[in-house]
Fold:
Amino acid sequence: MAKILHYLNQFFAGIGGEDKAGQEFLFLPKPVGPGVLLNDLLKNRDIEYATVVCGDNYFHENEDAVLTKLGEVMTRFAPDLFIAGPAFHAGRYGIACAKTASFARERFGVPAITGLFEENPGTREIGRYVLVIQTGASSVSMQSTLKRCADLAALILNHDHEGLEAFREEFCLKIPRRFTVQANAPDSVRALDMLLAKLRGDAFESEIPRIQAAPHPIPAAIQDLSQARLAMVTEGGLVPLGNPDRLESSRGTKYFKYSIKERDDLKSGEFEAMHTGYDTSTVNADPDRLIPVDAMRRLEREGSFRQLHDYYYVTTGTGAMPAKMQELGVGIAEEIVASGVNGVVLTAT
Amino acid sequence: MLITCLPNVATQVGAYRIMTGNKFHYPVGNPELSPEDETKWRAQILSAALKVLQTPVEAPTIFDR
Structure:
């Protein structure tokens, strides 16, 4: 016999819509709403199914109290599996799902599943080891999500580690974040254990999630450089002295372009690097060491290429999220292409 | 093309044309040289960078400077 505890908001529990978002925390010793279908999908197993319900507003206004009550239910009911949602693109519900699932996993060591759309703010609250099934943006994908949820539940209850890994790879959201968790040994011990496992050829899992870059098209080589207009870009935070646009010195969220028109080189005292990720003193002493205007002008005069673009583009890369950098990169690329630029030299610190 | 002192990271994230810079806090600087020599040195680096822009690639590739 296995026990499943399922968290739902007031809407999916069938209590009501926004007018019932103040619904207090509730324990029901049966499946409700999507739980009914899920329980049905698992009907060939011996399962005791219970539901906890909480209004979206009530959760956010009384989070600590709700988690305390959830803790009492976790102790009393002692589930083998905790399921929250799925919440699709619903923000408050998504955060509540993320927090309850993380709570169940971290405090009680109970495997926890939820289902979120990739842009749901709940993805930022997900704790380590919680499995997040990737869903569509709306409950239109309820059927297929619950089918996957049932498959995943079966893998967990069967302790099918290989199947679980394959499922996670195919259907779960990759959450590229670092988590604060209580470990059972100091980092030096864990690191050496991991190294020994690697040397022995045993399985091990890095504690730092690897970020998978989505493949993108290969930029074509420039055929005739003598006809090319080139631009310079950097993530090294070089801005005019005084940082007039207030570029962040870490975790950049914006990019700017600054004119280099009629400049033969960048002079100390006119530009400065805003960047907490490296010692900027050498660049500040001669900004050409980051945005090489002097060298590019020389090559332009020699006819190596046709023209240097009038602006260079800049953001600050240090500590930034890859997703944000991708967004900035797309913005810079679109502007540059629209300006008739054929190639870019990007310097990174 | 990208000039960086972390070419392995650049390869991992899928940049295609990569050249190793001089130092990570001044990728196209060489402060030990006189200003004139440093500009000359830098022009050589950028000249190599321009060749990279003209080179077809099929996968992330690290070029010599």
Notes: Chain B has a mean pLDDT of 95. Strands of chain B lie at 2-4, 17-20, 61-63. The first helix of chain B runs from residue 7 to 12.
